[in-house]
Predict the structure.
Amino acid sequence: MSVLDKPPIHEVSIVTDNRVVIVTGGAQGIGLGIVKAFSEGGNQVVIADIDEEAALEAVDSLKDSTVPPISIATDVAGETSVRRLVDDVANRFGRIDVIVNNAGISAPRERIEDFSITDWDRVLAVNLRGPFMLTKFAAPWLRKAAGGGCVINLASTRALMSEPNTFPYSASKGGIVALTHALAVSLGPDVRVNAISPGWIEVADWQKSANRQTPVHRPEDLSQHPVGRVGKPSDIASLCLYLSSPEASFITGQNFVVDGGMTVKMIYEPD
Ligand code: NAD
């Protein structure tokens, strides 16, 4: 068969509908952008968020989507809560095809001498143990997903570089990048696992109504990005759609930096 007999590239469409998708932290911010994209794309999305007020608002705002999302209140750091989420989704829909481990928190910035071990434990529990537990409990379903299961983990450019006094957040995101390749080699070939490391994604206007704010950016905020702007949730959501599609079936164990080029821009003041 010559290459000319193969279908033209432009006839290959990205098929991303008809799956059951769990998005943790899907009530606000980047997670809400991901929920919106999958719901409009014809997938049954389950929002698994600790903030029930925000989740109710999110469900209401997307009620006219191709497939409206539902919400199941979840604390991703709690074993019982995550087990119940998986059981509930499996009982309702009989399948789990995609999970997006998006829920994440940071801690107050303090010198290491003053840093609270309680804060360290909570950040690691939400940001790292949570994705491990959800993937563990959903694995039997993901392994038998038609066309292969998919896990997408939200890491951060802070897995690769830091500001001072951000210990547990950076450590948790570095852990996510490593967990991603560990899961990819453990769950393949049935399940693909990838990470996305966002840079600066503006989410002030993607919060529940009580906390929503209009973003304001200084010229230097924009110019530190080679693309000339900060990111928005749809920049991450569109990559989630692609990574979960059959067209990404050769991609697993990777970490994709999506930051408008911010982390490749050298800060250099010539004499
Ligand atoms: P956000 O604070 O806007 O939204 C996070 C959501 O997670 C909220 O709805 C919150 O209620 C929920 N959540 C918090 N703790 C939870 C828990 N224990 N169980 C379930 N849900 C919980 O955050 P965001 O900025 O949209 O960030 C989303 C993800 O992207 C996080 O993992 C974050 O670390 C990562 N990230 C964000 C940026 C950015 O610039 N916004 C950059 C890099 C990485």
